[in-house]
Amino acid sequence: MPEPLKFSRRLAVLPLFLLMAGCDMVVMSPSGDIAAQQRDLIVISTILMLLIIVPVVFLTLFFAWRYRRSNTSATYDPEWHHSTALEVVIWSAPLAIIIALGAITWISTHKLDPYRPLDRLDAERAIPADAKPLTVEVVALDWKWLFFYPELGVATVNELAAPVDVPIHFKITASSVMNSFYIPALAGQIYAMPGMETKLHAVINKQGEYEGFSANYSGDGFSHMRFKFHGLDRQGFEEWVSRVKTQGTALNRDTYLKLEKPSQREPVRYFARVEDGLYTAILNLCVTPGKMCMQQMMHIDMMGGAGKESAGNREKLEYDNRHSLAEGAPAATQPATGTPARSQQEPQGTGGGEQPMQHPMPGMGAHQGHSMPGMNHESDHENDPAPAQLNH
């Protein structure tokens, strides 16, 4: 082959190495102990599987070469049909690996249960007896993240911070559609669902700025639903809290109802004061005045149900028509035809053979927003924007 052609072929491979250099290997090089243990599971599982895959690939190539037609010295035995020793090797090796993987899976499933409090800071340090976890309440909004620090009385939007080597106890929920809370450097992803609370225990072991995002598609602004997680020393964390209290405003129910409306590329916001019980109201889908909290309904069910007042309770428990009155509010999903949901306009290119739905099902308000639990916005502040704050 001519030398110029060989050189050009070698140059063609260089862009592949450049693409590989741009890969973010945070999952394989995390900064939190839980993520590190999950990384170890990936490595161990891969090695165990390679113990079978590599010999099989090698023997496949070896047999193809060894018993090729042109190799007349290879033994040809068309009557061969069984070897006990070979059967033992073929079945015992995979069985041993499956047993090992099963044992590792069973142990790690319990040890790395996100609901299980931590028992160590890292592989070499146990949790001090006097250590107090930092509680963070997480709310997935459209399309932004709201973080409450109940012990500190502050809240933030799209920014999270925690001190190094301090256990973190996350309580996670959502305002409307399902999302997934994920900081690759800290721990695995945990779903955020409306009306439900999931939990995650984790710890960050190195100072730094890490990426957090939603790992579950949730509509128009999903790709920009990201935040920064700051791992700080104790002094740095205290300074961060002081900055939040100095620059922040108040977060009450009215402010939250404006904040929860769908928006994209939301800037970082600080709230120095938080109304008592706001997170509990978000979790129970009763921030909007007049709505019954889910825990109240569950208490009624536990007591055997209500009487004649059940009809009145039904209206208080309708959450599926949130944002239905807000004109032009971005939707979590958009039909491919561009025609709003339940519109009487016939979509283009669909055949035109069916009549549009004239009457929605009872209890389902016609809307262009989310179909997951949410709240009505019928107050005088329906279309007011969220209060402006500093961009950080």
UniProtKB/TrEMBL annotation:
Output this protein's name: Ubiquinol oxidase polypeptide II
Question: Can you say where in the cell this protein is located?
Answer: Cell membrane
Using the record's annotation, list all stretches that form the Cytochrome oxidase subunit II transmembrane region profile domain. 19-116
Show the ranges annotated as biased composition (Low complexity).
329-348
- InterPro entries recorded for this chain? CcO_II (IPR045187), CcO_II-like_C (IPR002429), COX_ARM (IPR010514), Cupredoxin (IPR008972), CuRO_UO_II (IPR034227), Cyt_c_oxidase_su2_TM_dom (IPR011759), Cyt_c_oxidase_su2_TM_sf (IPR036257), Cyt_o_ubiquinol_oxidase_su2 (IPR006333)
Record's SUPFAM superfamilies?
Answer: Cupredoxins (SSF49503), Cytochrome c oxidase subunit II-like, transmembrane region (SSF81464)
The protein's organism comes out as Sinorhizobium medicae
Give the transmembrane region(s): 41-65, 85-107
- Per UniProt, what is one GO molecular function of this protein? oxidoreductase activity, acting on diphenols and related substances as donors, oxygen as acceptor
Q: What is the lineage of its organism?
A: Bacteria, Pseudomonadati, Pseudomonadota, Alphaproteobacteria, Hyphomicrobiales
GO CC aspect terms:
plasma membrane
> Gene encoding this chain?
cyoA
Question: Of which family is this protein a member?
Answer: Belongs to the cytochrome c oxidase subunit 2 family.
Per the annotation, which location comes first and is thus the protein's main one? membrane
* Superkingdom: Bacteria
Region named Disordered: 329-392
> Residues in domain Cytochrome oxidase subunit II copper A binding?
131-243
Membrane topology designation: Multi-pass membrane protein
> What keywords does the record list, in alphabetical order?
Cell membrane, Electron transport, Lipoprotein, Membrane, Oxidoreductase, Palmitate, Respiratory chain, Signal, Transmembrane, Transmembrane helix, Transport
Any one of the GO BP annotations: ATP synthesis coupled electron transport
